[in-house]
Structure to design on (983 residues):
């Protein structure tokens, strides 16, 4: 299937440093000193230099610096990185520039550095306001840190803040989540990402679970909380535009929307970053030393690559579109994959429509109804 | 000395694990029939499954030469299957012999199948040669075992051979005892050919080959032979003996054991128990004792993947080439699609066939609950033989039903007597007799319905008695019974593959267990699924699988897409492997759950 190369791309940069790994985290991160950070920045520069010529005719309209903990790196790191990318790729005027910060390492100085570098969206890793619970799960931030972070943002009237909220931490009460949500509403956060905790292998939490030290939260409870959040946020003027993302109108995350569109390309830089470019997916090495060595040797950081076949594209289209509230464009699907889902999956669609799980809008988009987002996986499998 | 004077035809009877196959191996080794270096453990058990289970199903004869007192004797060992499923085959093998070695494990004593087989041997007027095995083991009780044989079976044991088949101790005494005690065949070489088929197998080049004992006359290549039951005639292409490999000889004469190949296309033409004679000089009367092999246990076999139907068909055809007692016809189930209704000699036979389908043919199959053959009388007096619950006439039109019963013999140490009697009572057993074998062990005799033992009776007996009790049964006709058809409804639709025929008094319990079991194996769906057990429209048990509340709500960003796609693809694959009934997806475990019903 052809790719529209004129569509603006996204740029992701991974900062793999944390002062301490949270128990539930399976992201790639290392705790490293100033020297290591410098080596990493040099390596990023090298990667950018190696790749920039390939994208000389492409435009970008989103930047996302994620981690790890991007706010932990030394002052000047982000500014220097920003200068480098501006001088290497073409960006549209209204480029969205997000950085993830952890309240424990976020400071006024860093904030000014980010703003000057062009950052116009800050994503605060709040997760939960229950300090005791957070500490239990190995997260370092305190309530003071969080208050301080929002004070800095408020004082400068920073307009576009996202916060991540985690649902389903063992031991977490429904009221503590609602408190967290209300706190964010009060602080005028424009975008909220809710995650239900996935207990991944190779995490501390997984081991605790295996040893029976903690109990996983029951599905019923999680759904209950999830629905409650949905209600609270809707009332406060947020709308859900994706399975786990809420925003005030106009504040949807441009960068993340690319991940849910099989026709949008994005370039990932740094250790463990992923790219999806013109139908190919690339995976950078997950090892920091390997990455830095590769860059020093002028070799590619990519350790594996896959071509997404038409059949896989079809699966991804269904799976990603249905994450979004706008749903799956059936006309476009027919055109792109030469398949009329209304015929090929007639039985499933009929059954699920009767059960009130999905609906087909007037403009022929198939969408999952609000109450059934918690079972979207099963619904998607029916349509594959 | 006449030729026949130097022939001994004998078999070995024993309970499972008492060392029959090991002894056979040793005999071949001591007679140099098989060089020691060529011996693999248990030479005669030619199928892998047999070897793994340590039981012999298929018979392979062996012709051994042994010098005794300066005379070379021909010793024909006919191995016999040691399982009740094959008792007819055993009886035909015994009919081909003049003597039987009775092997008893000195650490275990007489067991149920020892008795069953020894009675068959006595019925066949065989000379019994008692052999006490495993005397090398510390727990061997030689004197006690001898006493048991004398007391229970009534065979004098003064001269019984005391051996260890494993170590080879006293093996020659067995050979000598066979020569001294087993009478040579009484035959008439000049009479018309009279040969008993005690087994057959299919050979790619020779066709269906009959394993025979020649009673009278002789046969050679070129003779035109007649199979008296099927009344078909063929020209002999080859005769031979087993060393134990098949080796062609010029002629088989009265008293010999060997094989006859005559380009017969189907093993169904070489029926065990049939008499072979010469077309142009037939005997007046066939040998007694012929019976048609009848199926006792039935079940449906379906390919897990519906596309593999043809492969399953081919595999069954191939198995049938060598196993005339396997029956199958096409069956179509709403839940399982196309498959086969298969008939077996017994449970072990069924297990062997299903295992061979999976192992030798790499097929994944679903088997439905084993059933027996019921006789259903309708209001107009018409009788139906029902082996498949879904073919049962409507309850309203039935005037009465009969089910097959068996005579069951169980030998158990008395510690487990209570548990076993409880089990028999629970399985609708009718107590007949209890005999004390010795201070410790007791023989119980019951009659019980066959359908109560086709599930897991044997396993239960073993687990109650920690493996010490043994059982044996024989069919004992039909009796009238209050039977009902129990249906399972999933989301309101009958799942035909889960229907069973069950006694009225047990229907409620079975229905409830089955519903509970299904609840645990059927995955949650997007909607609620009621599971109902129903008899003739009346719901007797119900469970509900509540709707799925949550699957995965997790984040999905750049790096997660591939992983997530693969996860969904896997889920879709898993779904494809399930059977869809209406709107309910059933995993194959659902069909297995019916097999293990009483916990």
């Amino acid at each position: 299937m052809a790719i529209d190369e004129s569509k603006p791309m996204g740029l992701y940069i991974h900062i793999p440093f944390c002062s301490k790994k949270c128990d539930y985290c399976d992201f790639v991160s290392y705790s490293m000193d100033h020297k290591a950070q410098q080596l990493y920045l040099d390596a990023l520069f090298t990667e950018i230099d190696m790749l920039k010529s390939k994208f000389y005719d492409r435009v970008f309209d989103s930047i996302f610096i994620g981690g790890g903990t991007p706010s932990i790196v030394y002052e000047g790191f982000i500014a220097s990185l920003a200068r480098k990318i501006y001088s290497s790729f073409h960006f549209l005027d209204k480029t969205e520039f997000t950085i993830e910060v952890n309240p424990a390492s976020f400071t006024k100085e860093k904030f000014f550095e980010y703003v000057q570098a062009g950052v116009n969206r800050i994503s605060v890793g709040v997760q939960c306001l229950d300090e005791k619970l957070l500490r239990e799960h190995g997260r370092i931030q305190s309530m003071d840190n969080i208050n301080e972070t929002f004070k800095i943002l408020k004082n400068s009237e920073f307009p576009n803040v996202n916060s991540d909220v985690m649902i389903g931490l063992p031991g977490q009460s429904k009221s503590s989540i609602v408190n967290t949500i209300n706190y964010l509403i009060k602080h005028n956060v424009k975008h909220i990402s809710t995650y239900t905790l996935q207990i991944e292998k190779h995490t501390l939490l997984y081991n605790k679970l295996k040893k029976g030290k903690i109990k996983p939260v029951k599905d019923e409870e999680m759904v209950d909380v999830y629905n409650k959040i949905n209600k609270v946020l809707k009332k406060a003027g947020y709308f859900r535009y994706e399975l786990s993302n809420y925003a005030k109108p106009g504040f949807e995350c441009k960068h993340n929307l690319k991940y849910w569109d099989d026709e949008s390309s994005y370039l990932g830089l740094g250790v463990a970053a992923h790219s999806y470019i013109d139908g190919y997916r690339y995976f950078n090495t997950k090892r920091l030393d390997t990455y830095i060595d590769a860059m020093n040797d002028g070799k590619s950081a990519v350790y594996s690559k896959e071509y997404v076949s038409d059949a896989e594209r079809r699966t991804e289209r269904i799976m990603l579109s249905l994450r979004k509230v706008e749903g799956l464009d059936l006309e476009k699907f027919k055109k792109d994959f030469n398949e009329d889902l209304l015929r090929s999956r007639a039985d499933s669609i009929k059954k699920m429509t009767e059960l009130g799980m999905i609906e087909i809008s007037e403009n022929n988009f198939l969408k999952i109804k609000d109450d059934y987002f918690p079972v979207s996986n099963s619904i998607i499998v029916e349509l594959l | 000395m006449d030729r026949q004077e130097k022939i001994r035809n004998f078999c070995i009877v024993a309970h499972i694990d008492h060392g029959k196959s090991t002894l056979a191996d040793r005999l071949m080794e001591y007679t140099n029939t098989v060089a020691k270096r060529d011996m693999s453990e248990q030479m005669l058990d030619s199928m892998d499954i047999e070897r793994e289970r340590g039981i012999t199903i298929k018979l392979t004869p062996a012709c051994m030469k042994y010098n005794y007192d300066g005379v070379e004797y021909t010793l024909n060992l006919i191995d016999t299957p040691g399982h009740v499923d094959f008792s007819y085959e055993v009886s035909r093998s015994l009919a081909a012999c003049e003597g039987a070695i009775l092997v008893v494990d000195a650490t275990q004593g007489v067991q149920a199948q020892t008795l069953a087989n020894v009675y068959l041997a006595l019925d066949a007027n065989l000379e019994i040669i008692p052999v006490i095995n495993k005397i090398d083991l510390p727990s061997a009780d030689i004197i006690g075992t001898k006493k048991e044989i004398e007391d229970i079976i009534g065979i004098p044991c003064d001269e019984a051979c005391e051996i260890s088949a494993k170590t080879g101790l006293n093996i020659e005494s067995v050979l000598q005892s066979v020569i001294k005690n087993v009478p040579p065949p009484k035959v008439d070489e000049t009479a018309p050919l009279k040969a008993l088929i005690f087994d057959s197998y299919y050979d790619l080049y020779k066709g269906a080959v009959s394993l025979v004992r020649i009673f009278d006359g002789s046969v050679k290549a070129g003779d035109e032979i007649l199979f008296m039951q099927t009344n078909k005639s063929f020209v002999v292409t080859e005769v031979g003996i087993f060393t134990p490999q098949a080796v062609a000889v010029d002629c088989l004469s009265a008293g010999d054991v060997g094989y006859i190949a005559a380009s017969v296309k189907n093993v169904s033409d070489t029926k065990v128990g049939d008499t072979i004679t010469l077309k142009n000089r037939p005997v007046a009367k066939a040998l007694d004792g012929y019976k048609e092999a009848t199926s006792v246990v039935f079940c449906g076999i379906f390919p897990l993947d519906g596309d593999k139907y043809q492969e399953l068909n081919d595999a069954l055809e191939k198995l049938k080439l060598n196993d005339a007692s396997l029956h199958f016809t096409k069956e179509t189930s709403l839940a399982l699609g196309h498959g086969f209704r298969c008939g077996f000699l017994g449970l072990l036979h069924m297990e062997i066939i299903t295992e061979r389908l999976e192992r030798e043919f790499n097929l994944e199959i679903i088997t439905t609950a084993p059933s027996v053959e019921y006789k259903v009388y309708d209001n107009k007096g018409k009788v139906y033989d029902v082996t498949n619950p879904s073919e049962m006439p409507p309850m309203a039109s039935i005037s009465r039903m009969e089910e097959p019963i068996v005579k069951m013999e169980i030998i158990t140490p008395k510690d487990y007597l209570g548990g076993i009697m409880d089990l028999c009572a629970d399985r609708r057993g009718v107590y007949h007799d209890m005999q004390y074998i010795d201070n410790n062990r007791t023989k119980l005799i019951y009659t019980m319905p066959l359908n109560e033992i086709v599930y897991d009776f044997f396993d239960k007996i073993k687990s109650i008695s920690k493996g010490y009790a043994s059982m044996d049964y024989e069919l004992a006709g039909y009796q009238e019974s209050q039977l009902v058809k129990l249906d399972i409804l999933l989301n309101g639709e009958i799942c035909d593959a889960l229907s069973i025929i069950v006694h009225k008094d047990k229907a409620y319990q079975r229905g409830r267990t089955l519903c509970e079991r299904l609840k645990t194996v059927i995955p949650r769906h997007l909607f609620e699924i009621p599971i109902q057990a129903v008899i003739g429209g009346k719901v007797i048990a119900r469970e509900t699988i509540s709707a799925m509340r949550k699957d995965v709500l997790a984040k999905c960003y750049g790096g997660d897409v591939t992983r997530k796609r693969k996860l969904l693809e896997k889920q879709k694959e898993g779904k494809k492997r399930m059977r869809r009934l209406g709107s309910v997806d059933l995993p194959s475990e659902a069909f297995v759950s019916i097999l293990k019903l009483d916990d």
Observations:
- Residues 42-46, 51-56 of chain B have pLDDT under 50 and may be disordered.
- Chain B touches chain A through 25 residues (CB under 8 Å).
- The CA atoms of residues 371 and 383 of chain B lie 18 Å apart.
- The two ends of chain B are 65 Å apart (CA to CA).
